[in-house]
Each structure stands twice: as structure tokens, then as C-alpha cells.
Amino acid sequence: MNIKLTQxxxxxxxxxxxxxxxxxxxxxxxxVLIDDKKNILAESVLSDYQTRIEQLIEVSHFNGxxxxxxxxxxxxxxxxxxxxxxxxxxxxxxxxxxxxxxxVLQKIAxxxxxxTQKRVDSITVALGDTLEENQFxxxxxxxxxxxxxFDKYKSEQQTPVLTDIYLLADPSLEDxxxxxxxxxAGQSLTRDVANEPGNICFPAYMAEQAQxxxxxxxxxxxxxxxxxxxxxxxxxxxxxxxxxxxxxxxxLVLMEYRGQSNFSATADTSKATTNSAxxxxxxxxxxxxxxxxxxxxxxxxxxxxxxxxxxxxxxxVLVGKGVTFDSGGISIKPGAAMDEMKFDMGGSAAVLGTIKxxxxxxxxxxxxxxxxxxxxxxxGDATRPGDIxxxxxxxxxxxxxxxxxxxxxxxxxxxxxxxYQPKAIIDVATLTGACVVALGHVRSAVFSNDEDxxxxxxxxxxxxxxxxxxxxMDDEYQAQLDSPIADMQxxxxxxxxxxxxxxxxxxxxEEGQAWAHLDIAGTAWISGQDKAATGRPVPxxxxxxxxxANMA
Length: 552
Fold this sequence. Notes:
- The chain has 552 residues and is of the alpha/beta class.
- It contains 15 helices and 21 strands.
- The strands form 5 sheets. An 8-stranded mixed beta sheet has the order 9-10-12-11-15-19-16-17, sandwiched between helices. The chain has a 6-stranded mixed beta sheet with strand order 1-8-7-3-6-4, sandwiched between helices.
- Strand 13 and strand 14 form a beta hairpin.
- The longest helix has 22 residues.
- The chain is elongated and about 80 Å long.
């Protein structure tokens, strides 16, 4: 799909009638937005169409309710020597301008695309100065996202007629449109790999996707893949406990996006605590630059600025759960809807897509994407309930449920990525059904040990419309993970399942290391007959990284 800013309206087409059959000229459509008070948005640039618009509103009894539509199809024309094909009009209601939140903009964008995709080559959406910059970006992204299709396995594919979208808006929004296009590219990759079936998308496939990205953007991206042999040498036994039940080898894929400068990991984990303290100071200096915090924390400004400068090249690390198919292992899942467990790699798909979007947007920031990829299968080699294994950081874990496997691949990966001495670590995972019970399919859950990272994620959530909700992680929940024979067990009982999963992960983050955990079990895909990946939280991550780059 091509999308561009424009400063002109589509032109009327005229074609002489010939003996041969004339080709259809229903090629363009002008989309006009109307609010619930029947006000024509961007009215000042629509003077040539004013009469047609007002007549159409009147004869159709159009009220301007959100997603209400009416089209005139431009049926009128000269009956003699020429056949005029006036530009089609499509009126779309937007409802109250005070309620143009992300969900409404998404519905309006979907309505526009669905109303035009099968009958015109191009549309021009008259926006004028109706939308603020972040609203414009959300609207453009949702128009693009509406065009996404995953039908590669269908014998018959229907290609939409619509190929070009023009947004009649201020030229100053060009950067916002370019950013939306970059996010769409990443979000589409996320949806592509997540929608693939488990017999196609397994750990090696995810590694191949990352390596293809590195080949496409060689000046920005370096990819390293660790197999089970390397992970065994590192003591990543929690990760391997999940992978060992499958014939598909587990892979830890490390994607280093060098948008600001070169950086490297250090194998000396003995310095983790000292370095983490420096990181925390750097994050506080970053947070102080936000408007709402400028007046606070004056006393240690100089030392914090120095810490920030020393830590400026440290990357932000994104860690994605990549269980490419989750049968539950020996604690096997019920058969109903088990096919949707191909989406259990939604976290790693989101990290992969975010890295692609970063390469497209070329944000001046250093980021590491870690894809923790394994297949969770029952077999003679699979981990059993009751087994005790030792993680990379030396802590022992009693496995009570092999279907609580995502936290096992993540905990070792969290241990590993701290060698980058990152500014912040954010892991993202389709981790718990309890999160779906708590928040449904609207907001992703966020847990964090750092209020600055939490603040920045919540700000990015507001600006992107990719919504999150802060969940508790009180120390009192930690007791649910106590084991009588090991340092901890991998589940915490029936209550607060999403919380205890976050508490489990927190035990593998060094003190002082800024960290957040996103549980996207309810938002990574849509269930049911029309099951499909959503591409979340790529928009959230890209807004967060954009804001972070601007603060650097």
C-alpha cells in the first residue's frame, strides 16, 4: 500500500465515448469526514465539492456518527459526446471530535479502507488540521494496517483494487507519516511470522528471519545465534529444559541495532551490580528531562548528568518470548484451540518487528533484540513436573508445571543480556492466561522495578494508542514461589498468576538494573474463527524508543 501527503484534491476524469468499450474510470474517491454535528471537517479545502457534500448529507439523512458512511458513486455524467466521471464521494462519520481516541481512529480507518478497497484505485482523505500529530500518526498507521493480509496459503487470493492513499494534511506531518510507515513495516513482519503455522515457524526459522534482516540492513544490524551447545556451556539450563522435549533445536537470537554507536557485551558478569548502579543513575537523568519532572531532583543533577553521559551508548534491550508452539509439554494443554498456541512466540515476533521498524526509521539509538526461541513438546526427553534445574545465575528451580515454560526461557535470557550493561531491559511475552482474565484484550499488562521506565512506557502507550496497564508486584507475592526443596518453584498457585510470573522473572534481574515485563497474552492475537496476530506491541515499543532517542 502506498501512502503519501498531498496538498491537492483528486481531479475529475473525462473520457470520450469511442466505439470500443471504454475502460472504467471509477479510479478515485474523495473521503470527507463529518462530525456528529454535521460539520464538514477540512471544509476550507473542499469548496469545489461543497454543494455535492451538503446535498448528499441531506438526501441520505447522514448524522455523522462514528463509522457511518454514505457514497454517491459519481453516477451523473454528460449523455452526449463525452462521458464525465466525477470523483466519487465517500462521507464518513467521525462522531464527537472530543472522543477521537485511538480505538475510534482505528475503527474509522478500517471503515474507510473496507468501503473503498474493492472499487477504486486511490483515495484522498481530506484531513486539514483536524488531527493532532500523534492522532495523525495513529490514523495513518491504522489505514496501512487495515490493508494487511495473510492469505499466502489460500489457493485463490483476491487482490484489492485500492493501491494509493493520499492524506490531505499539513506538510509538517511528513515526518510523522514516515514514522508510521516504518512502524507498519515492522508490525507487518511481526504479524507475518506470528501467523505462520508451527510446522513452518520454529526456532531456526526465527533465526533465519533475523539473519535476513541483517543482510538487508548490514550497516545497522548485527545478528548472533546461540544454539543449544552454546547455551549449555553458559549454564542456561532453564531455557534448555523447555527446548529438550522437541526435535527442533532451541535458539537464542541476538540482534544488535547500532543506530547511535558501536557497543559490545561483556562476559564479566561480576561487574553487574556496579554497572547497574551507573545505569540507574543514567535513567534518572533521562527521566529528569521530561517536562513533568523538570522541577524535581535538583540536588544530584551534576553527578546524574555525568552518569548519563558515561552511559549514553548503552543499549536498551528488548527480550521476546519465542515459544514457537506450546503444547504445554508433559502438563499438556486441552485440545480445544491448541492450534492458537502457534502465537506463543508473539513476544519474539514483536521484538523482531520492532528491530525491522527501527532499521526503517533509522532512529539514533542503540537497541538489542533478544529472541528466546524454543518449541515446548511432550516426549521421552521432555522435562517432567517435579524436576529441579539450575538457571544461568545459579539459582535452582523446581518445575511444578511444564506449561509455565515461557518464564524459563526468559529467565536465562534475562541473565544473559545483562552483560550488555543496558540502560533498561524490557521483556515481552504471551505469558499467562491470568493476564487475559485480568485485562481482557484491550490493554497489555506492565510490571516494573523502575518508575522512570514505567513512566516512559505509559507515556508511549498514550501517544501510540497501544495501551498498557500498570500491575502490582509487591514483595508479599514472592512467597507464593517458595519451594521446600529448591530456591523457587516455577508457578505460584491459583491466585495472581500474572503477578507471580512477573515476580519469578524479577529474581533474575540484578539489583539496580532497570527492568519491565510486558504480558501480552490478551493482546498479541485475536482468537476464534478469524484468529490472527495483531502486531502489538510494536507501536508501543517504537514510540518508547523514539522518545528515548529524542531525550538522549
